[in-house]
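Is this the right way to post structure tokens for a design question? Let me know if I should format differently. Anyway, here goes:
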């Protein structure tokens, strides 16, 4: 082994960067993680506002075995680092006409509630979730747990079998069309259309194969880290440090240095200092990796010019009252769902009757809010940042959100807000270097989207790998963790 050939550098300590560092360390590499912020986690971080604690980013935790796998890989007991519980309700849903339903983790119980609420046949939910499980069984490993950019992973028996079943996967329908065919009732269709937002896409455009997403939430379940979502980050950083990974904060990487042939990585530059490594993993958004760190490398124009995923406006409210009618996850639906997505993806603006998501971690983690109070994470989907008048859009959106909440809950929520912080596409971009503030990199508004995502490696540059939500297999905690697994499996 050549001198320094076992050195690896990870750029960025988002969840995929941390996971990559752990996996590389277990392979015998000496690993350093450089992070521009003073804290790890990227979007998966937390902060305090007055007496309230908030998770800044992702609030839904599914597929916890992908987190546990990292501890097991390092020879550690996951429960010594990280505790979580399965939640008995996946979400509470509300409509302006007074309709509401609780999505139970017990599928049979939920199926009965759906039948009673929407006057549908009782087995309709069970059949829909069986279909989601079938899609996962057919394409889950193929699309999510291996590279789509290596010929051997495509030209094999499992892929051929999946191709023969393609008509059963709704790939030629939009998610909305597939849900209409399966569920019929408009409100039930809307409930299942919302799963397109889990990867920042439009249900009227994204392919029906995205109907796999409810499998992870309902058939597998939703979970909650008992110390909050940020404990996913803190526990994995603790694991990484325990096995010898070094983290360097407040360190912005200026450039990835290649050799004279431009075909192999040599290291990185930070403030004029050179750090040598033969292996570099970028957890930075792939757009900025090329435009900031690889100035002399021809960038993949078609890949980087794809439509961006949606972004978000998030209001973090300390609310001095408890609402027993709400749970950990809550959705207040718009009356015109299609118009909302037209506004976001076509008009590039905020809709005047937005769907509102409210996460309240203090429902479980009581210490996240004072007694008789709650910490509200209030999120509405937004377009990617195209230099809109965000200050005006935020003000109008805040009014519309408050109006909807007041109407549904019969309250005056503004009088109960004692602390407020706001995150918008501009600050998402500046804090996490997510291009245009998009939460999931590129959208999946095409049946070819999975194949158009940037691969986890660069064929013509040895030692350079890409992980995180802007590359294959996509955004969200489970997929970011899988991007690290895919990339490190090719080292």
């Amino acid at each position: 082994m050549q001198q320094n050939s076992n050195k690896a550098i990870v750029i960025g300590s988002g969840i995929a960067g941390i996971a990559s560092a752990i996996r590389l360390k277990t392979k015998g590499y000496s690993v350093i993680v450089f992070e521009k912020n003073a804290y790890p986690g990227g979007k998966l971080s937390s902060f305090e506002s007055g007496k309230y604690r908030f998770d800044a980013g992702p609030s839904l935790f599914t597929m916890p075995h992908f987190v546990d796998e990292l501890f097991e890989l390092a020879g550690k007991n996951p429960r010594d680092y990280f505790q979580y519980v399965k939640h008995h309700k996946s979400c509470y849903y509300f409509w302006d006409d007074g309709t509401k339903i609780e999505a139970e983790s017990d599928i049979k119980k939920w199926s009965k509630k759906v039948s009673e609420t929407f006057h549908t046949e009782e087995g309709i939910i069970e059949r829909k979730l069986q279909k989601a499980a079938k899609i996962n069984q057919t394409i889950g490993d193929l699309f999510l747990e291996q590279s789509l950019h290596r010929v051997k992973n495509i030209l094999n028996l499992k892929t051929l079998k999946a191709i023969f079943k393609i008509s059963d996967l709704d790939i030629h329908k939009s998610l909305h069309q597939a849900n209409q065919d399966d569920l019929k009732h408009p409100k039930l269709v809307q409930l299942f259309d919302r799963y397109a937002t889990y990867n920042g896409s439009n249900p009227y455009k994204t392919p029906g194969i995205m109907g796999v997403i409810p499998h992870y939430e309902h058939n597998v379940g939703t979970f909650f880290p008992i110390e909050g979502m940020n404990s996913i980050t803190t526990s994995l950083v603790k694991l990484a440090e325990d096995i010898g990974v070094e983290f360097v904060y407040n360190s912005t990487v200026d450039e990835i240095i290649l050799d004279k042939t431009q075909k192999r990585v040599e290291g990185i530059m930070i403030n004029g200092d050179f750090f040598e490594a033969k292996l570099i993993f970028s957890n930075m958004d792939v757009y900025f990796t090329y435009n900031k760190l690889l100035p002399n490398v021809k960038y993949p124009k078609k890949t980087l010019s794809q439509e961006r995923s949606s972004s978000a406006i998030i209001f973090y409210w300390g609310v001095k009252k408890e609402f027993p009618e709400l749970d950990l996850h809550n959705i207040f639906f718009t009356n015109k769902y299609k118009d909302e997505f037209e506004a976001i993806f076509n008009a590039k603006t905020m809709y005047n009757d937005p769907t509102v998501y409210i996460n309240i971690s203090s429902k479980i983690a009581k210490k996240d809010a004072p007694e008789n109070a709650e910490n509200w994470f209030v999120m509405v989907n937004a377009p990617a940042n195209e230099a809109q008048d965000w200050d005006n859009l935020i003000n109008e959106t805040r009014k519309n959100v408050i109006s909807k909440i007041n109407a549904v809950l019969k309250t005056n929520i503004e009088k109960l807000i004692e602390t407020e912080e706001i995150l918008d596409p501009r600050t998402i971009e500046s804090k996490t270097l997510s291009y245009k503030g998009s939460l999931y990199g590129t959208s999946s508004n095409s049946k070819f989207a999975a194949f158009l995502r940037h691969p986890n490696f660069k064929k013509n540059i040895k030692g350079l790998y890409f992980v995180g939500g802007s590359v294959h297999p996509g955004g969200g905690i489970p997929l970011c963790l899988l991007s690290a697994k895919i990339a490190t499996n090719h080292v």
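Format looks fine. Someone answered above. Worth noting: DSSP finds 17 helices and 19 strands in the chain. Residues 7-44+63-85+227-304+444-489 form a domain with the FAD/NAD(P)-binding domain fold (CATH 3.50.50.60).
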